[in-house]
Predict the structure.
Amino acid sequence: MKYQVDMDDIRLDNYLTKMIDESRSQVIKMIKSGEVLVNGKVTKAGYILKKDDIIVVNHLKKDESILPEKMDLDIVYEDDDVIVVNKANGVVVHPAVGNYHGTLVNGLLYHTKLSDLNGETRPGIVHRIDAYTTGLLMVAKNNKAHEFLANQLALKKTYRKYIALVWGNIKNDSGTIDAPIGRSLNDRKKMAVIVSGKPAITHFKVLKRFRNATLIELRLETGRTHQIRVHMDYIGHPVVNDPVYGNHKLIDETGQCLHAKTLGFVHPKSLKYMEFDSELPECFLNILQKFEE
């Protein structure tokens, strides 16, 4: 796990206790055992963090390891360098503290070999989507491909289009949300639009209006954690069925109506542009049907 600190003058152990699902005593043990790096170096639990410090946590509990697991994968495309997979609803992308099994990475490791640039817990993972966001992800099978794809993301050369159902009636047919996103100052487990956050840009276009909701298409210029969910909540139109952002009653337990529909990138070996598309999942369509009735 990787964190970029968004505040000054907080102890390393106190910061990590807020950020991960571990006790302070366990966090201190992790720091002492060298499982925590700050700016690439092992340090003490009482180290005073500064804004923009980078913390990397490489922690596996005893008797826990990232094992290949047989899983039904919806593979849209695959060759020797890249896999494009259509992630199902409720599937976590990669293992983390307290969740080492049943992730997409476990299933991919059973299927094939992956790059190891991101360490033991995130092999092959170039970018992520939330557990209850569905849709397309590109995964690297070797380190050369991983570096190439990650560079495209950093330079904003990938094409990512999402479909979302949001609460309320958006008046404008299209628009751009340009608002920085960082860790919420009120709830450390949530993200929020804050002045000290990282730049985040989301473009949207209205596809269809309902009585009390709007179906929209979104395109990302940046890839901040929970970006679409935070931005739509920020402008007063939170994603329907989102259990974290917005204050609307949940329709069911299937998670937010947000789908990564289209993914485009330049292939790391052929250097040809490739684009893939996916259909809205059943969980999304079931909720959408309720608004169309």
User: Anything to note?
Assistant: The helical segments are 12-19, 24-32, 104-111, 143-154, 227-234, 282-292. DSSP finds six helices and 17 strands in the chain. The radius of gyration is 20 Å.
